[in-house]
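for the record, two folds in this file. i put them one after another cuz i was lazy. first one right below, seq on top, structure tokens after. the second one comes after a little note so u can tell where it starts
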Amino acid sequence: MDLDQHGRLRNVLWIHPRYRAAYEEFHDVVSFDTTYLVNMYKMSFVFIVSVNHHEHSILLGCALVTHENWLQAMNGVHPNAIITDQCPSINLAIRDVMPNMTHRYSIWHILSKVPEKFKHVDNFDRCSVDFKGIVKYHLDNNVWLTGLYDERAKWVQVYLYETFWAGMISTQRSEGVHAYFD
């Protein structure tokens, strides 16, 4: 537990010793999922998940966090790669704390935003199939698409093929853990 100078909770991190031992063996790829729940204090309930040698999801820990303190609890051992959503604060923390690690955006989170981002586009199904539709439907200046293009090295497979991902392309493995806490 981490308290501020007024004795208020800032972070709670729960890691069973078995999970710490599993992390020593399976820290190649970690999914850091902050999308499950945000409480009234704006603290995310985070799942940290990896994959074992049988390709089974393994829970490495849970936390209520306002900022990332998980590496410290894992004895400073950095994962080789991490998958997250596009949360700006997580991006900054990863860049600052683990600058040499490969960071990938969850493709599921990107694709789940498409209907919302393009609800204003008439006949979007046709536009998404026809590449020329980007110009035809005036999407060439779309801020969200431009941002995705600028960050393509974090989600387009061709830029990520040199990194071992244990078959993970999204934080989807955390979804099974979500059901446990529902």
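(here's the note) second protein begins now
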Amino acid sequence: MSGGKKPRSVANPLESAISTPSERILRECHSLYVDNENGLVKMADSVGVRLLPPRKKIIVMIMGNHSAGKSSFINWYVEEHIQKTGVAIETQGFTFITSGRKRESLTGNATLHLYPHFRPLLEFKGVTDYLCAEISTSKQKKFSLVTFVDTPGLVDGDMIYPFDVNKAITSFGEQADLIFVFFDPMGQALCKRTLNIVEKLSERCSDKLLFYLSKADEAGKETDRQRVMMQIVQELCRRPGLNKCGFDMPTIYIPNPQKPSRCVNQIDGVCETIEKNINQAVQKTLNQLERDCDLTCSTISTRLAQDRADNSANHSSRLHSFLCGALAMFLPSFFILSFIVGTLRPQQLEEILGEGLAWALTLSTGIVVYLWDWIPEDGQVLFVILFGAFCYLLMFLAKYFARQRNRTLTKKEKRSLAEYHDYIQDVVKAKKGKLYEEYLQQCAAEYDF
């Protein structure tokens, strides 16, 4: 980029050494957006395009009836006791659980500042008062690339929530990358509120929904588990939005060496699903980066082309304004001058102006005097009125054209936009290509490149 601007390093060597390629790629993509000097968000904003920086982590929302094991699963994955667990309804709001530099708890406003993608939740009255974030230093599994959203435990009956829980969970689900629905065989697995929300989410983002029979080791014998699963599946299939082929509901539970169980535990498959979605998130982020670069460059090009058109239109308006204004001043002046010249003798004009100029002035003003004499005396007053109105119209048109000028870019603004365009093409897109190649190298053989 001209002007001495250079792309800065987006990660220090220590962070690069301890982070995974996927984590590093997501972080560098995010940095390309939010850089204070050459960030894509800043450059796009200069031409009226609003971009949201991509998330550095995937969002996994976990929902289900109360005591379905949502918080227990998060604690197991993080390998740290962050969320309260128990039979009672411990989670009444939404909690973000994410990895960070130090253990910290954030309130609603701070949480939305950390996750700007969820600002639409402000539409729901009361949600921010029941929104918080728990930041952990854990680096277990893929937690450094995952943010869990623990949702309120859902129950039927007279339970009153301090906000519209159905709409709030649906809104969270639309922003999440994955939605885990936990059905508890010992609790209210067939909670109607849960099924209603799941059906609503299925209409909008069915590809994100994954169903699990949690606490499967507490469901008794294998026949009891099969009976519970059949009941859940039957209830789901009664709803048109959830009646689909290929339905799967793995059994999961928190491993406990002190309580061995013969039940098949597919909880490792949940971790694999998260890891697979992380890899897809890297691809989506890189593709989104390319689309945003193209959108910003095309908008800048359009803005510069529009500025050239505006400059041309302004030039035309100035010309029209000048011509109309000049005529509005010249015509009455020349009209009056014609009668003044008619009162002077030719010898006087030649002494004042010279022979050639006097002859030209006498000839031109003579035409005006001749036309004036040609007009009947009773129509001369009307002619003067019409002539004055015409001159006023010319003056009005001169002012009208003067006001038709469009705002154009200054030289500094045009230079800045041109630099932005070149920077995106030469630096950001080149960086995107390098990151894509780095991502592919970790999963493909060298001879494929």
